[in-house]
Amino acid sequence: MSQPAAGDTPVVEPAWRRIGAAVVILLASATSGISFGVVGPVLRPIAAQIGDERISQIIIVMPLAGLALGGLVGGWIAEWLRARRAICVGGLAFALAGAAALAPPSAPGLLTICFCIGFAAAIIGIGRGLLLAELYAGDARARMIGFASAFGSLLAAGSVWLSGVIADQAGWQSAFLQFTAVGAIIVVCVLVAVRGGAGSQERGARTDYRLLAPVLPIFLAGGLLMLVLTTTNTHIPLLLAEQGITSTAETSSVMSMQGLFSMLAALGYGALQARLGKVGVAAIGIVLLAVGNGLAAVAETPLAFGAACAFLGMACGAIVPCLIDLLLGLAAPAVRARALGFYAAAFNVGGFLNPFIMRPIRDAVGLQGLYMVIAVSCAVIGGAYVLGGAARARRAALARTAH
């Protein structure tokens, strides 16, 4: 365990509490991925029950709307409840919302359930971030962020695969019980392992929002990244169906490649950023985004679609830990809860807007054309990012030489 960063309050905990808190961080890191991962593979059965493909796609991204709004208000909630109680409340709501799907749902009911799932996941995520920032710093923080992101991706990939299997065997509504199980486990673990005031900030403190200025670009980057990555859930099932691949289990197996390879990339984040720096990791991630989307545009077999999802997963596993690492390093402790919440809001607004932004492009150029447009856009942004970074490095080198 590293010493806290400058400006953080040192925390000394018994070993069993530190281990328990690490388990809570790992479990909590999975909730946002599960919140929309479970719903994607059951797109077609939901659409069949609702009778409207457009409504079903909105249902799929409703957890992202909940995550976004939960992010906007979650900083205040986490400051008021403190991390332990915030995670408990969020975990309980997560569990109950999943169980509510067992009742015969209407379209408005499903929209509400999915929104509540996302809102609860946002509260859990902010509490997790406060714990992580208090207990870890420096390279140890980078490693823990990578491990937590990897564990979250592993559970998200597992939930995508399991969702399809459960839907084929017991009906798509039963897949929502995964939320109930994860929420219940989180509540039990945090009650046992996390002390009452852990990860808290001073209540009622007046916030100087100018302290958020250094992290504003991170909010924008997170929103754009999620806008791109959500296309897997909203359009890959339809693209597979165009190629005659209609099995729910096979569809979920292809889509789970994104979570699996995100996990593998996130596991290596700590070592990779120590060697290449955060700028280098981000550049590699953008390249992987372009490659994954380009491959999806020309894929015709399940293997090729799985490879495309794998590249997108590696991009996610590289960029997401990098953004969180940057955020925790740049956000002042006084605004850390708000910064985590606003980041979650921006990140998930990007995902929620996916069907509204991508559908007109899809209507104009087709499903495969949509992925090619995304691939070219990522390539252009990546090129500009690399060139801009090189220019800044040259200016810094010239400044050092001048002095």
Q: What does this molecule look like?
A:
By secondary structure, the chain is an all-alpha fold. Helix content is 81%, strand content 0%. It has 14 helices and no strands. The longest helix has 49 residues. The chain is globular.
Secondary-structure element pattern, one letter each: HHHHHHHHHHHHHH
Helix content: over 70%
Give the rounded overall mean pLDDT.
81
Q: Biggest sheet, in brief? A: none
Structural class: mainly alpha
Distance between the termini: 38 Å
Based on Cα principal axes, name the global outline. Answer: globular
Give the low-pLDDT segments: 1-11
Radius of gyration (Å): 21 Å
Oligomer: single chain
Q: Name the beta content range.
A: under 5%
